[in-house]
Amino acid sequence: MQAEEDAEFVGARVEAGLRAARFSSPPSSEEFAASIEPKNVPAVFRGVLNGSAASSRWDPLHGGLDYLLEKVGPDVAVEAMMSSTGHVFYGDLRSHERVSIPFSTFMHSCKSYLGGLNAADDSSKDKGIGEEPTCSEEMCSASLENSEQLYLAQVSILNTENKERCSLEVLKEDIQEPIFLKGRPFSSINFWMSRAHMRSSTHYDPHHNLLCVVAGCKKVTLWSPSASPFLYPMPVYGEASNHSCVSIEEPDYSSYTRAKYMKEYSERVVLNCGDALFIPEGWYHQVDSDDLTIAINFWWKSRIMTEMLEHMDAYYLRRILRRLVDTEMALSNSICTTRLKVMIHLTRKGQLIHLTRKDTSSSQSIERKKIAADDSSLLEKDPVAKIILPVEPLELRSMLLAMVHTFPRTLEGLVLNILGPTGAEILTRKFDEMDQQTTTEEQTEFYKTFYTAFDDQYAAMDALLNRKELFSFQVFQSVLDQYLRVHVDRPS
């Protein structure tokens, strides 16, 4: 029975439609192509590799290490990852390096490690274990100091773009592709093996991925692409842009405030020998591998990426950014509205008016996703916005008309000198709501009267539009930071 901490879990905020589907038996290729792959949602397939040649021949506990040694041969070198951060392998090259080692060296190191495990197990039972797996002095010395920090990661069995990199091509003879992937034009098939427990950093891949466990066990934590704001992806211009900035072992929540909500938007899947996991392109995942775990994975381009034409990239980029900005604008407005409603409610109750983010996180009426996006409330920085937000549109209309007749200079000063970007956005939205509740004649009369408070009505219009654009730019900056880790200055 698995330990409780190894059980699968689904975060409280994972939408039902984004949870990994479970299949006790592999689907047909037609079912996968029609109803699983197009959803771009993970799927777990139990027992996909059961009975395969790789599953029976590569098992380290049943002679698999000797088989792999003989199959690959003594002279083949592979590229391994060596971590400077213990068993954790981050995407940033500053914390690991690629080293070339003989495949046989890694296998002998694994045999030595397995022998130690067997010896320790039998010692605890007070029994002899017979002859331990041994290796030559040369091989053992070549197994490298701190060899537990080595990881055979993404060693090519098949690579359509660079066939010269396929150092383990001979192993393809043992691999039978799952039936539901029949006909897929794979870009690569890769070999993964850990000697001892290994942990990969949180990252996403630009291809569809089927991860298959041949031996051992892997625990995979998943986040949808929409969870990017909680994961703080590295800058898009960096060498590890598909990795998260947040430390797995010791998250710095003071620097990455939204990261405290990571777990709520995650799902963990436990893959045992023979199981497979479909990870769609763009889905973040973090993988824990047990001792002596072997896996293979298949990568192929999604239909969207295959059919996307390069000359359309700039257009799609603008469409996607516009969609994200619109979503963020709606979210910002919703945050402001919700916070003000709570403030008004508490004021009526005679309680504290000021709410911190910690206070609001305990309110069931405010979704944590909205709080997480609200790193610093734009509303708190705009006193006029705080005043006008809770006022009903027609009530605000009456107030503004009264100010035109009684305090025109005060109204002019508010709009031209005090109203901030958030206030301009809220005020113009209030105007839109007023228009929906009044006739065309009433609208014309209101705006004609409203702008008489200004010596230059066009200057007032410019002030509102400029601040609305600044608000939109602040939202745009937030989108770029959350999804791309890019900062841009506003054009002059």
Model description:
There is one protein chain. By secondary structure, the chain is α+β, with helices and mostly antiparallel strands. It folds into 2 domains: 4-307, Jelly Rolls; 312-484, no CATH class. It is built from 16 helices and 15 strands. It has a 9-stranded mixed beta sheet with strand order 2-3-13-10-15-8-7-4-6. Strands 1-12-11-14-9-5 form a 6-stranded mixed beta sheet, with no helix packed on it. α14 (421-437) crosses α16 (457-484). The longest helix is centred in the last third of the chain and has 36 residues, at 313-348. It starts with 8 loop residues before the first strand and ends in an 8-residue tail after the last helix.
Task: Summarize the structure in short.
The chain is α+β, with helices and mostly antiparallel strands.
Domain count: 2
How many H/I helices?
16
User: Averaging pLDDT over every residue, what do you get?
Assistant: 84
The outline comes out as: elongated
Q: What is the number of E strands?
A: 15
* Fraction of residues in β-strands: 15-25%
Provide the low-confidence segments as ranges: 1-6, 127-143, 342-376
At the fold tier of CATH, the topology name of the largest domain is Jelly Rolls
Question: Which helices and strands appear, and what pairs or packs with what?
Answer:
Blueprint: E1 9-10, E2 21-23, H1 29-36, E3 43-45, H2 53-57, H3 64-72, E4 77-83, E5 88-89, E6 96-102, H4 103-124, H5 137-142, E7 150-159, E8 186-194, E9 198-200, E10 208-215, E11 217-223, H6 228-231, E12 267-272, E13 276-279, E14 284-289, E15 293-300, H7 303-307, H8 313-348, H9 357-361, H10 368-373, H11 383-388, H12 393-406, H13 408-418, H14 421-437, H15 440-450, H16 457-484
Parallel strand pairs: 2-3, 5-9
Antiparallel strand pairs: 1-12, 3-13, 4-6, 4-7, 7-8, 8-15, 9-14, 10-13, 10-15, 11-12, 11-14
